[in-house]
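Reviewer 2 asked us to include a model.

Predict the structure of this chain.
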Amino acid sequence: MLNLSIRSLSTAAIGILLLLFREQAMPAIVMCVGGLFSVPALIALIIAVVPMLKHNKGAVNAKTIAACIVSAGSLFLGLWMLFEPTIFVAILMSVLGVMLSMAGAMQITALLRVCRKVKISLYLYIVPFLIFVAGIVTLLYPFKAASLPFFILGIAAIFSAVSDMINAIFISRYLPKDVNPENVMDVTDEK
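Predicted model (structure tokens):
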């Protein structure tokens, strides 16, 4: 029962942290990606440059120069993402907003074309209109839109933790005294 309560408390803590710091979650993810770009790029750049320094002109060829350019570009991109994550969040959300609004507009246009030949229900316009509005809202409020998935994940984590504890208490009532409810919960998790 102790492992189950620790797992549930950990899940609830993660959910609460996601709710409290949802605005900082997306920039933190972008910074992690920037770090993941920077480290291998730096290693690749060192591996490409060291033989050129040791062998002078003999090691310089088109492949080495291309490797240096790609590594330097990846290093620059990774460092930029690491130190300016808000720019990349804004770019990502702007692209997503444009894609959503275009998808909604295209679906509405397709429905209008079909409407010329066949009478269709107005209810079919609701979802494309909502997609279009979601795209516009994402364009107008990119950082609020970026934090929404973390809000949903935080709520889901808290509900999961509470549900896990309630299930453990419920199951423990109906088990024989010598059976550990954690073993039953682990078996149900695996299925």
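Residues 19 and 151 are 5 Å apart (CA to CA). Confidence is low (pLDDT under 50) at residues 187-191. We have added this to the supplementary material.
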